[in-house]
Amino acid sequence: MAPCPTSQKRFDVLVPHDNMKSVDKSSSVEDRKLLRKIDVRLLPILTLLYLLSFLDRTNIGNARIVGLAKDLEITVSEYNTSLALYFVAYVIFEIPANVSLSNSSLKNLNPQIWLPTLALLWGIASVCQGLVVNKAGLFGIRFLLGVTEAGLFPGVIFLFSVYYRRHERSWRIAIFFAGAALAGAFGGILAFAIGKMDGIGGRKGWEWIFIIEGVLTIFVSLIAYFLVPTWSHKAKFLTEPERERLLARLRADSDAGNVEKFDWFFVRQAFKDHLVWGYAMLFHGFAFALYSLSLFMPTIIASLGFQSWQAQLMTVPPNILASISICATVWSSARFNIRAPFIVGAAGVAIMGYVILLASKTAGAQYIGVHFAAAGVYTGNALLLSWPGENVAGQTKRAVAVAMQITIGDIGAITGLSGYLFRIPHLITIGYLVFAALVTTYLSIWMSRENDRRDFIARSQKDNPEPSLMQNGSRLGDRDIHYRYVYRI
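Structure tokens predicted for Major facilitator superfamily domain-containing protein (489 residues):
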């Protein structure tokens, strides 16, 4: 990220989360107007890009039940391989993409160019999925799709960190992630309509699903070049006083308004932090459920005895419910300043859905189970994905932490896709969700106790602060005693 002329070189004291409510209450009308202006510029276009990325990676599930597998003579294991190849590429390129974006020495690599270019490239890859003539071609294109989509999610999370204070990010990231659930609903309707084009232009309905949805992504990506903002200190949609106010707010809350040159020290720091691994393993547990459910939902519903066109449309209600659940739960989490109980609760709702799927004998009851599973899985993911962005200090360390979370999480996705046999994976998914709930409990207890320990040390050193901590705060990051973890309970 290019340096800001007014930036400080380090932060000494971060506002404890316990004081955030008082900070919010004292926020001026100008602050609220500034946030609304930023929201209008960032949230619609970034959410739309993520909706399209999720649509382009999961529409293969819709294409499968309208003829893809039959026409390309793809077996169940080969289909799962095509899905896994996407995530293999995603995992490989996740961390390099985010570290590159956060590296202040790469001044020409800014989100205004980087994110729309990624969208343009994966849109082209999506179109190419509709042009393949054999399984080898499908395997290759799925890998390229993973390469091109790898940088979007962590890049957006990092971009949020240079526009919003820590406690302001959670519900915005949740709105952004809600695009995934909306993609499932929108994708079902779109696939149903596009499937009617079977035979037009000599192409199959499943080919048109990839082509039309890919063209839509390309069109939006071109518009995104004019809408996605650059780094906050260069944002032209803000006036000079607004930029100065924004940077002042960020510096009072975290290191987001400061200059940090790339240093491998911070990369190693991220890999050595047990909390960073905890955030990653938490997503690992939920990602297993997220992608096995999103990619196989049409197949699951079709297996209940419904025709393919019915299954396409019947994916809409569970995804709509998931979107509503995300909005309601994340609002409540921010309102009551708690995170872990809601994540554990979301895991419980999802487990209930999978138990219904396993235990019920009727299609109606199992369809209800799909609703519970979707609501719990999507909501849990929406809550957990903002945690490292809020609780990891040091820009490079935070970029690596966010990318590690997605990378290790998507290894869970590969595991979930490699042997999907409908009923057995439901049992495994329950195990993964229980694991995620346990990791959540560990993270929340550790952060709460660590905050209490730092409060005690800070009080004891009130009249004689420890020089080494104050002088080395820029390298200590979130391990400085003045740093407080947010949403830790």
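The chain has one domain: 27-479.
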